[in-house]
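Per your request, structure below.
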């Protein structure tokens, strides 16, 4: 699954897909010079990029194989709840709604100690490729 990130922003930030479950997709991202803001904290934009990457890939996996469709993010929000300054964060995307035209995903991003650092929700449009 991580091979789908080759040549993308996700690859540039070091995102790795670590687990695909029956109702979730999980991945990690390092907290390093690529993903922090000038004061050494995990950049909110990096968290959002992780969230959208996971939800978009998970959304694609929920589509009918061979249907020539993809899930494209059309809205995302995020609440940054805890500062992270080092290590790795883990994001888990789970579906809230899987419709024919739209999907809604919740993405929880936790620090290395399992503490919630960011909660995000993304809406995706199901579009043809």
């Amino acid at each position: 699954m991580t091979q789908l990130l080759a040549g993308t922003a996700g690859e540039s930030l070091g995102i790795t897909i670590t687990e695909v479950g029956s109702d979730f997709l999980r991945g990690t991202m390092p907290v390093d010079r690529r993903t922090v803001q000038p004061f050494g904290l995990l950049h909110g934009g990096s968290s959002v990029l992780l969230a959208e990457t996971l939800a978009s890939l998970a959304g694609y996996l929920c589509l009918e194989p061979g249907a020539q469709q993809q899930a494209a993010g059309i809205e995302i929000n995020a609440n940054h709840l805890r500062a992270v300054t080092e290590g790795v964060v883990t994001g888990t995307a789970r579906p809230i709604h899987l419709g024919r035209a739209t999907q809604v995903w919740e993405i929880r991003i936790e620090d290395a100690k399992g503490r919630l650092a960011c909660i995000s929700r993304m809406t995706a449009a199901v579009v043809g490729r």
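Residues 102 and 125 are 5 Å apart (CA to CA).

Regards,
D.
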